[in-house]
């Protein structure tokens, strides 16, 4: 059961794309203008530089936003482990979950003693992504 | 004189900029933006919300399609059908259950129970037809898988309905209400997506915490099957006699613990000192998963029919009822059991023993009922 990848169709408007391209072009022009003014030692160079950068950031952000919509979706498969023990001795084995495993299932004679091995636990371990708020515990 | 100078320079700093071309450009842009936001602000806000819903809807569609695919693949793998089950699966995903009329609420519990029984029988029959080679355990697991896929299908269709309706009517309020609850709906959908895989593999889920506690207590003792889909074992516990009840595993099954408790109570002519119910309960944000808490009352979820039966039984004989709950969130409840919840069941077993010691005396008879889905949990 591998994680499947979907290819959703491009649904964003072509007008939006044109606007982004125009803003991008204008921003680059403004930056070039700033460079020209810098060479002429003109103090208004700063305004063009500001406009250019703002335009560049805005258009890049909008472009990324449209790209985000065609990103690939996946369904995460969480690893699950099965713990096998022998109640009579210290035998313990941890392996990946296999179809047919269930808690308290007896799975045959123990290799160390006369007892019967059984599945004592099936669970998944997850790493917390964010630290819990310590202040409100 | 000073005031006069200020008045002369005022227009240049206000609505009209100075001689500088850049000031004019900024002023025009600002004025245009102001006008646009005054007249189209709400529309812009709506488009942003619509875009957000669109993104979530794409994800929901993916999850829904993935759920359908997993269900079909599992049926093919386990059930070995002669024909392609896709069409039947599609029909199954569209099944509706019409709840009974409750204008006259007297007897509505039994009506609801009957409808749910019919639904379950119908689902099981459908699964048997789709997967003729599946055994009882796998039939239960497949039924659970299909139910999770069906829930995803419903979520997707409801969100799509409001999305299209909002776009059609251009109503900010329709769009807004769906956008506001979208994060919670997405969490639920992601939870069902995890459930699908757990059900198709037959892995124990967080909701089975109560059943696991009962399984630990009854392990190694003689079990008896009771109606419906439950098992009961007579276990000597701390010098008392405990009737331990759980849904029969390891197939995906919640059984009718209310029916089982009622039966045990009646068989003992109401001479039960206390009932202890163990179940998984939804935690609040900030609480740790697997935390164990105690209380009183019938710890059982679902449509309410089983809780009603238990409450009727305990009221008849005035039996005290205690609850031990294991906390988890909705995502944990239907996805493969987390280590913290598994460890929580070990704590819950000790709590049950402590409650028995504190609330009863030696020689008494008690009922311990582990509530929850027994998928992946034997006995």
List keywords for this structure.
heterodimer; A: 137 residues; alpha+beta; 4-stranded antiparallel beta sheet; 4 strands; disordered N terminus; B: alpha/beta; Rossmann fold; 11 helices
Describe the structure.
Chain A has helices at 14-39, 45-68, and strands at residues 80-85, 92-96, 106-109, 116-124. By secondary structure, chain A is an alpha+beta fold. Chain A has a four-stranded antiparallel sheet with strand order 2-1-4-3, with no helix packed on it. In chain A, strand 3 (106-109) and strand 4 form a beta hairpin. In chain A, helix 1 runs antiparallel to helix 2 (45-68). In chain A, 15% of the residues are buried. Chain B folds into two domains: 46-201, no CATH class; 206-370, Peptidyl-tRNA hydrolase (Rossmann fold, 3-Layer(aba) Sandwich). Chain B has a seven-stranded mixed sheet with strand order 1-2-3-7-4-6-5, sandwiched between helices. By secondary structure, chain B is of the alpha/beta class. Chain B is built from eleven helices and seven strands. Classes of the chains: A alpha+beta (137), B alpha/beta (379). The interface between A and B is medium-sized, with 32 and 37 residues.
**CATH topology (level 3) name of the largest domain in chain B:** Rossmann fold
Pick out the low-confidence regions of chain A. Answer: 1-9
Alpha plus pi helix count of chain B: 11
CATH architecture of the largest domain in chain B: 3-Layer(aba) Sandwich
On the 0 to 100 scale, the average pLDDT of chain A is 79
Low-pLDDT residue intervals, each spanning 5 or more residues of chain B: 4-13
CATH class of the largest domain in chain B: Alpha Beta
The number of E-state strands of chain B comes to: 7
Which term fits the overall shape of chain B? elongated
State the strand order across the main sheet of chain A: 2-1-4-3
Distance separating the two termini of chain B: 98 Å
- Name the chain pair with the biggest interface and residue counts per chain: A-B, 32 and 37 residues
């Amino acid at each position: 059961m591998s994680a499947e990848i979907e290819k959703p169709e491009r649904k964003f408007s072509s007008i939006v794309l044109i606007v982004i391209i125009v803003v991008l072009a204008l921003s680059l022009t403004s930056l070039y203008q700033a460079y020209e003014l810098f060479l002429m030692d003109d103090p208004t160079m700063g305004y063009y530089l500001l406009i250019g950068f703002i335009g560049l950031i805005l258009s890049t952000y909008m472009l990324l936003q449209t790209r985000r919509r065609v990103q690939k979706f996946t369904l995460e498969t969480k690893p699950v482990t099965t713990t096998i023990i022998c109640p009579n001795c210290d035998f313990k084995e941890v392996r990946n979950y296999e179809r047919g495993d269930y808690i308290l299932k007896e799975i045959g004679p123990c290799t160390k003693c006369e007892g019967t091995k059984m599945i004592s636990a099936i669970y998944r371990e997850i790493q917390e992504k964010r630290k819990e708020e310590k202040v409100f515990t | 004189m000073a005031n006069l100078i200020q008045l002369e320079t005022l227009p240049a700093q206000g609505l009209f900029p100075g001689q500088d071309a850049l000031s004019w450009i900024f002023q025009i842009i600002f004025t245009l933006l102001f006008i646009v936001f005054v007249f189209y602000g709400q529309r812009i806000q709506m488009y942003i919300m619509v875009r957000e819903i669109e993104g979530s809807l794409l994800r929901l569609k993916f999850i829904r399609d993935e759920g359908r695919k997993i269900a079909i693949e599992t049926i093919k793998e386990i059930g070995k059908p002669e024909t392609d089950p896709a069409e039947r699966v599609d029909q199954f995903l569209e099944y509706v259950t019409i709840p009974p009329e409750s204008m006259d609420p007297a007897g509505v519990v039994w009506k609801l129970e009957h409808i749910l029984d019919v639904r379950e029988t119908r689902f099981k029959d459908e699964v048997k037809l789709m997967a003729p080679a599946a055994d009882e355990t796998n039939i239960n697991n497949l039924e659970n898988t299909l139910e999770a896929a069906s829930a995803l299908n419903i979520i997707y269709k409801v969100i799509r309905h409001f999305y299209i309706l909002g776009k059609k009517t251009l109503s900010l309020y329709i769009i807004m209400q769906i956008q506001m609850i979208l994060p919670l709906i997405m969490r639920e959908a992601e939870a069902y997506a995890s459930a699908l895989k757990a059900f198709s593999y037959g892995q124990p889920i967080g909701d089975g915490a109560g059943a696991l506690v009962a399984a630990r207590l009854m392990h190694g003792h003689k079990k008896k099957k009771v109606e419906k889909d439950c098992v009961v074992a007579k276990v000597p516990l701390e010098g008392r006699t405990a009737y331990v009840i759980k849904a029969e595993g390891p197939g995906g099954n919640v059984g009718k613990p209310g029916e089982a408790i009622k039966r045990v109570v009646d068989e003992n002519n109401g001479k039960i000192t206390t009932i202890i119910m163990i179940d998984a309960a939804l935690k609040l944000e900030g609480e740790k998963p697997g935390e164990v808490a105690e209380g009183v009352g019938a710890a059982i979820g679902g449509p309410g029919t089983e809780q009603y039966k238990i409450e009727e039984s305990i009221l008849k004989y005035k039996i005290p009822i205690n609850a031990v709950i294991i906390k988890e969130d909705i995502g944990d409840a239907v996805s493969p059991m987390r280590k913290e919840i598994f460890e929580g069941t070990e704590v819950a077993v000790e709590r049950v023993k402590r409650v028995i010691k504190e609330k009863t005396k030696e020689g008494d008879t008690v009922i311990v009922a582990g509530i929850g889905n027994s998928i992946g949990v034997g006995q």
